[in-house]
Specification:
Layout: H1 6-20, E1 28-29, E2 38-43, E3 53-59, E4 76-77, H2 90-96, E5 102-117, E6 128-135, H3 138-149, E7 157-162, E8 169-174, H4 207-216, E9 236-237, E10 243-244
Parallel strand pairs: 1-6
Antiparallel strand pairs: 2-5, 2-7, 3-4, 3-5, 5-6, 7-8, 9-10
Length: 314
């Protein structure tokens, strides 16, 4: 049996709680599935400083049969400064050499907003916190709306999908307060407190980790926090009405919390709204029967070894 002190236990719990503050598990991706679908939204944009942007190396789709590489993989933040495509970034070099999977870096913006999707009867559902991934040029449209309407958090907008496939575009219209009640999407942005886009929508990797992916087809594994172990003595009934003492003490299965340090993974059906698949949702480990072992809170984004520090937005 692995022994540990109460101080060790508190340290594990503290790590899990630190990850919980990231709130990434609460935030989804914006998607309108069909032409003419619409949603009522409230942008979490008070100024252009509230709009995260990044240069991302996206995977090239259609190459799943490439031997040695596990697909899909999440988009990876470029190591070069914006506008620079030197060999400082291993993925820039790989893309320039026509790598089968690693794509060239493209500039993206990630729009935080609250969205209430329109139901088939014309009503609106409960607001949800989401990220809308758009090309960097979309920032110009938001900048114009800020200049004309002021703080976007104070107004509601209607987003409507027009067209499909490569012809898909979106109209963004001011929602008149006389038609759309402000209470339909309350200005509650608490889900975005301590939110980190680099742990939600793309990886931040070092040059060594990128080279490892190029050479092996996978990133080095991130070490997981040690899980306290527990044992339990479970009485086994005999064939007779009496109970006897068991000969051995079975080892209870160990549940190991997964401290997520990687982005969420949307399905390929979400590729249009967010073409870069990311990290899986975390499921807490299940304790064995008749074993009561307090589990550390496992959430989406604990700060674990191997996760790069947040980059400064450029």
């Amino acid at each position: 049996m692995s022994q540990f002190s109460y101080a060790d236990y508190e340290d594990v719990v503290a790590q899990a709680q630190a990850g919980a503050s990231n709130n990434t598990a609460k935030v989804g991706y914006f998607k309108l599935s069909k032409p003419n679908d619409s949603a009522l939204v409230r942008f979490n944009i008070g100024s252009m400083n509230d709009l995260p942007m990044a240069s991302i190396h996206a995977p090239i789709f259609g190459t799943r049969g490439y031997v040695g590489l596990s697909l899909p993989f999440t988009g990876v933040s470029c190591l070069n400064k914006v506008g620079d495509y030197s060999d400082t970034c291993p993925f820039c070099k790989a893309a320039a050499e026509n790598h089968a999977v690693i794509g060239k870096a493209s500039k993206k913006c990630y729009v935080p907003m609250l969205v209430a999707y329109r139901n088939t009867d014309g009503s609106f559902g409960e607001p949800q916190p989401v990220i809308w991934e758009r090309p960097s040029g979309f920032g110009s449209e938001l900048k114009a709306k800020l200049a004309n309407n002021g703080d976007l958090r104070n107004s509601l907008y209607i987003i409507t999908r027009i067209g499909s496939g490569t012809q898909t575009r979106y109209s963004i219209d001011y929602a008149m307060p006389t038609v759309f009640k402000d209470s339909l999407v309350p200005a509650d942005f608490s889900a975005f407190e301590n939110f980190k886009i680099d742990k939600h929508s793309f990886w931040v990797k070092t040059a060594d980790e990128m080279n490892a992916f190029i050479n092996t087809g996978a990133f080095p594994e991130v070490p997981k926090a040690e899980q306290p172990q527990t044992q339990a003595k479970i009485a086994q009934p005999a064939a007779q009405p009496q109970f006897i003492q068991p000969q051995g003490i079975p080892q209870a299965p160990q549940g190991q919390p997964q401290f997520a340090g990687q982005p969420q993974t949307p399905t390929f059906e979400q590729a249009e709204a967010n073409p870069f698949p990311s990290q899986p949702q975390v499921a807490p480990a299940q304790p064995a029967a008749q074993v009561v072992a307090e589990q550390p809170a496992a959430t989406q984004q604990a700060e674990t070894a191997g996760v790069a520090k947040p980059r400064t937005w450029f």
